[in-house]
Structure formats: structure tokens, C-alpha cells
Amino acid sequence: MLRRKEWNDALLLPIFLFLLLSIWVQYQTAVLEGKLVQPIVVKQLIFSGLALATLLTARRLPFSFLVKYAPLWYGLSLGVMVLLQWYYDPAMFELTGTKRWLRIGPLTLQPSEMMKITFILMLVHCTLHYEQRTQNRTWQSDWRYMQKSLLLALPTFLLMFLQRDFGTSLVFVCILGALFIIAGVNKRILFCLAGLLAVLGSCLLLFVFTEWGRAILKVLHFKEYQLNRIEAWVDPQKYQDSISFQQVRSMLAIATGGFTGKAGDAAWVYVPVRESDMIFTVIGEKFGFIGSSGVLFLYVYLFYQLLVAGMQTNKRAALYFSVGLVFSLVFQTVENIGAAIGMLPLTGIPLPFLSQGGTSLITVCLGLGIVLGMEKSGPKSCRSFDPQTKGID
Questions:
Q1: How far lies 376's CA from each of 133, 310, 391, in Å?
Q2: What single-letter DSSP state applies at residue 108?
Q3: How many other CB atoms are there within 10 angstroms of residue 327's CB atom?
Q4: Which of 18, 36, 153, 212 has most Cβ atoms within 10 angstroms of its Cβ?
Q5: What per-residue confidence (pLDDT) applies to 276?
Q6: CA angle at 145 for the pair 140 and 133, rounded to the nearest 5°
Q7: What are the beta bridge partners of residue 107?
Q8: 8 Å CB contact between 314 and 381
Q9: DSSP E strand stretches across 27-118
Q10: What totals of helices (H) and strands (E) does the chain contain, helices first?
């Protein structure tokens, strides 16, 4: 008879609060922009209900089962991503010029969001496979492990490139880096890799601000609006009436909130795409510095509880998955809020839980449900998982 899993109340609390907050934020957005409130709130209630159902279902799945068959989940996710080349949403393609959304009847899905979970599971599977078969680790063996991981990640990055989704690609880079660090890859290799990324980032900035560089980036399928976002980030006031209009308006909206927020049902500052990319402006304008700080604290508490849940299992696989999930959520949170306050360039990355979009919300709850399903273990030492034989213990 299977032992009933205990509920992790410390982790459930921030999840439940974020689901409630997501409904409230979308309601406030509709009010501020003068839209019909009822359909937007009902839509968000449905998304929240589906996300909660996904969380409860994922909690019941054995984590060993998910990791053991990670190549299957990853392969299926890649297959769905490939389908986007033909079965993309024509309305979103007309609006954005990208093939990121899959149309299924009246619904649109963004497969790259779901890919984040299977990507983490695949990397965990690869890492444990390497640790199980390597008795004495050297920098050469670590380098081979990294090469294999990068090779596994290559199809994802190629599909992101075809979809011109640079922002989401950065999330996958962050997940890779987190897994390499937590897996204990040789520091010299990590420093070299960090240096290479710094050089590439510097070259990207150089290319953006030169005509010949922009020509090269356009050959690499970078869109004009993506290059403009970086230019607008460097000097937003210079382009406040053109390419940096959205970011400048976002900063003004947050500033008008002051310390305690502004009352009223009308927006003090117009902000384009407030419901998704700039959802943090609603919190800043309505609740000011106090409310914004409270939301940030709630995110930090959620991330802390995710790491604690992974460590309490005393299993490498669970810890690796928790770290990968936390770093993906941290990157999205920092990038979205950083862009809203002008600290980082816009990339179109949604704010976890709060931005409009059911795919993102359901995916986040899928990952959280997997963590909630991890069972606590006693003080015994961590042991690896052999995907060919035993499983996780």
C-alpha cells in the first residue's frame, strides 16, 4: 500500500497567494484600461483552476517515473515545438511576426513554456547518468558531460532561433548554468564559459550600436524591434516618444504609485501591454513601494521554499530539479521586473503567476506540483539515480 504524501504547507501558502493575486491583478488591469471586467476575470479564474488541477495532478506523479522517462517527455516537447513551423497561430503571427503560439480550436498555447519543465528533467537525467558512471571526476570528464548536455540542449536552441524567441532562450541558458554549478562542474571550465558569454554579450551590444553590426544581426534573424529594445534600454529618455515609449511609461506608472499607491479606477499613466509584459506596473501604481516590496518578498519566500523542499528529500535528482526550476523562475522574475523599472532591456518574458496567459501559469504550477510531490527523506546520505537500473532512492 502506497504511503500518503505529506502536504508541504510552507510551499502551498505562497502558491495559493499568488493564484489569488493573479486574479486580482488582471481585474485591476481591466479596470485601469476601461475594459470589460467580467470576461477577463472569468478567463483568469479558469486558468487558475486549470493550473491548480495541474499542480494537484503533478503532485501525485512519482518523481522517479518523471526522471527515468525524461528523454520521452523531452522528445515529445521537441515534436510539439517542431509542429509550430506549420500549425502556428496565424493571428499571433500577423501581430508579432513569430511562430511561437499553437492554435487548438479557440485556445492558443505556447509550447516553449512547457518545454522548460521537460528541459530541466532531461538535464537532471543526463547529470545523474554521468554521476552514476563516473567514479573519479576530472575536468576532462566534466567537460565531456557539459558537451553532452549542450548537445542535448542544441535542438531546443535551434527551435528557439527559428521562432525568434531570444528572451525564452535566455531562460534555458540560465537553467543550463544552474545545473552545471549545482552538479559541481570544474570551476575552471565554468569561469571560461562565463568569460565566453561575457564576450558574446559585449559583442552583441557592439553590434547593436553599429550599422555593420546590425546588418550581421539581421542576417542571424534578429528582428528590428529586438535591436531597438537594447538601444532603448541604454538611453530610454532619448527615445521616449518612439522605441522606448513602453519602458518609459512603465517607469512613470510605477513612480506615480509613490510609497503607498494611488487610489481610483483610472490609470494615471497609460502603459501599452500592461496585462502581460508590464503587469508589475499595476502593483506599483495601485500599492506603491509597500505593495511592490510585499510581492517581491513573496517571490523570495517561494524560491526559498522550493530550494528547501528539494534539499529535504536528500536526493540529488530532487535537488537538481528544484534548483533548475528556481533559477528559471528567478531569471523570469528579475528580467520582467527589471525591464518594468528600466534596469534591464525588454525581452517579452512573462512575470511568473501574474502576467496574462494560461500556458505560463499552468507550466509554473506543473513544476511546483512536481516539487510538492517529492517526499521528505531521513538524514541518510544522498545517492544517485541509475536510469538504466534502479531509479531514485
A1: 26, 9, 16
A2: E
A3: 21
A4: 18
A5: 82
A6: 90
A7: 104
A8: yes
A9: 102-104, 107-109
A10: 15, 2
pTM for this prediction: 0.89
Grid cell digits, residue 186: 570544474
pLDDT digits (tens, 9 = 90+) for 51-89: 999 999 999 999 999 999 999 999 999 998 888 878 777
- Residue 24 grid cell: 486580482
Digit-coded pLDDT (tens) for 147-174: 999 999 999 999 888 887 888 899 999 9
In degrees, to the nearest 5, what angle opens at C-alpha 112 toward C-alphas 109 and 117?
110
CA atoms within 13 A on the CB side of 68: 14
Nearest to residue 73, comparing CAs of 109, 102, 116?
Answer: 116
Q: What is residue 38's three-state secondary structure?
A: helix
Tell me which residue of 231, 239, 265, 374 sits closest to 27, measured CA to CA.
265
Question: In sequence order, what are the residues at sequence separation of 6 or more whose Cβ sits closer than 8 angstroms to the Cβ of residue 26?
Answer: 40, 41, 43, 44, 275, 356
pLDDT, one tens digit per residue, over 282-322 is 999 888 999 999 999 999 999 999 999 999 988 999 999 99
Per-residue CA distances from 29 to 46, 242, 257, 347 (Å):
17, 24, 15, 21
pLDDT digits (tens, 9 = 90+) for 10-49: 999 999 999 999 999 999 988 888 888 899 999 999 999 9
